[in-house]
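Customer escalation, tier 2.

The customer says the design service returned an amino acid string that "doesn't look like it belongs to this structure." They asked us to rerun it and document both sides in this ticket. The original C-alpha cells are below, unchanged.
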C-alpha cells in the first residue's frame, strides 16, 4: 500500500491563462471544436470511403485507413476534454480518467509511429520492387504489420501508464498541461521517479529509433532507385509520394523526440504545450489531407460516391 496515492483527481492547468480570459473562451472553443470536427469527418470519412470503394482495397489504403482510425483515436482521447475546459471551465479530471487518457493517447501515438514505419516499407516495395509488389505486400503481410503496430502500441502504453501510476502523488495534483501527459504527471510525484523516467526514455527511444531506422533504410533505397529512373513521370510520382509521407514523419517524430527524449528537469511546460498541440490536434486533422485528399484515386472515389448519393 506504500505506493498508493491519496490523490483522487487532478486539475489541468495547461489552459488556465486562456480560459480565465472571458473574451478568448468562445473563440478558442469554436477553433478547437472546428479542428475536432474536421478531424472527425476527415478520418472517419476516409475510413468509410476506403471500405466502400473496392478500387481502394490495396495495401497503401489499408494502412491509410488504420492511420485514420489511430488519428481519430488519440485526438478523441485529448480534444473533447480541452473543449470542455473552454466551454464550462471544467479543468478537473479524475485519477482513473487521467490514467485512461494517458493510456489511450500513448497507445494510439505509438501505433501511429509503427504505422508510419510500415507505410515507409510499403512505399519502398512499391517504388523499388514494383514487379514484386503484390507478392511482397500480401494481405497476410499487411495484416501482420498492422496487428504488430497495435500490439506494440498497447503494450507500450500499459508499461508507461502502469509505471507512472505506481508513483505516489502527495504534494500536488496540479497538472501544468492541458491533458495527462507522462512528463507533466510524473513531475507531481513525491516519490523517487528516477527509474520511471529511465524506463520511459529507454522504451520511447527504442520505439522511435526502431521506427525511424525502418523509415531511413526504406527511403535510402527509394532515393537510390529514384536517382536511377529515366522516366520523368515516374521520378515525379515517387518524389510526390515521398514528400507527403516525409513531411508528416518529420512533424510527428520531431515533436515526439522533443517532448520525451529529455529529463523532466529540462522540460519547459509552456513549450511542451505548444508542441503537444501539433501532435494531439493538428497532425490528426492534417493527415487525411497530407496522405489522401491530394490523391487522384481518393478524389475519384469521393466524387463517385457523391454522385451516387445524389442520384439515389
Amino acid at each position: 500500500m506504500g505506493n498508493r496515492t491519496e490523490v483522487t483527481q487532478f486539475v489541468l492547468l495547461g489552459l488556465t491563462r486562456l480560459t480565465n480570459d472571458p473574451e478568448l473562451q468562445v473563440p478558442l472553443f469554436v477553433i478547437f471544436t472546428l479542428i475536432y470536427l474536421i478531424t472527425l469527418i476527415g478520418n472517419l470519412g476516409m475510413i468509410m470511403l476506403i471500405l466502400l470503394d473496392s478500387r481502394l482495397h490495396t495495401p497503401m489504403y489499408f494502412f491509410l485507413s488504420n492511420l485514420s482510425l489511430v488519428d481519430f483515436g488519440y485526438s478523441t482521447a485529448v480534444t473533447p476534454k480541452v473543449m470542455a475546459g473552454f466551454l464550462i471551465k471544467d479543468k478537473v479530471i479524475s485519477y482513473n480518467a487521467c490514467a485512461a487518457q494517458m493510456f489511450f493517447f500513448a497507445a494510439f501515438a505509438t501505433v501511429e509511429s509503427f504505422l508510419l514505419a510500415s507505410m515507409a516499407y510499403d512505399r519502398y516495395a512499391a517504388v523499388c520492387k514494383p514487379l514484386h509488389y503484390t507478392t511482397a505486400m500480401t494481405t497476410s503481410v499487411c495484416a501482420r504489420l498492422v496487428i504488430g503496430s497495435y500490439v506494440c502500441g498497447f503494450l507500450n502504453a500499459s508499461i508507461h501508464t502502469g509505471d507512472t501510476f505506481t508513483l505516489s502523488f502527495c504534494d500536488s495534483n496540479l497538472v501544468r498541461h492541458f491533458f495527462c501527459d507522462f512528463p507533466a504527471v510524473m513531475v507531481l510525484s513525491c516519490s523517487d521517479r528516477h527509474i520511471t523516467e529511465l524506463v520511459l526514455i529507454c522504451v520511447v527511444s527504442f520505439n522511435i529509433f526502431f521506427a525511424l531506422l525502418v523509415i531511413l533504410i526504406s527511403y535510402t533505397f527509394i532515393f537510390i532507385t529514384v536517382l536511377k529512373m529515366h522516366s520523368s513521370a515516374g521520378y515525379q510520382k515517387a518524389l510526390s509520394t515521398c514528400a507527403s509521407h516525409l513531411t508528416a514523419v518529420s512533424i510527428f517524430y520531431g515533436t515526439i523526440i522533443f517532448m520525451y527524449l529529455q529529463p523532466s528537469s529540462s522540460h519547459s511546460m509552456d513549450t511542451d504545450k505548444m508542441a503537444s498541440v501539433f501532435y494531439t490536434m493538428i497532425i490528426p486533422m492534417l493527415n487525411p489531407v497530407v496522405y489522401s485528399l491530394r490523391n487522384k484515386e481518393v478524389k475519384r472515389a469521393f466524387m463517385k460516391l457523391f454522385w451516387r448519393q445524389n442520384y439515389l
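Tier 2 assessment: The sequence is consistent with the input. The mean pLDDT is 82. The longest helix spans residues 95-128. Sent an explanation to the customer and offered a walkthrough call.
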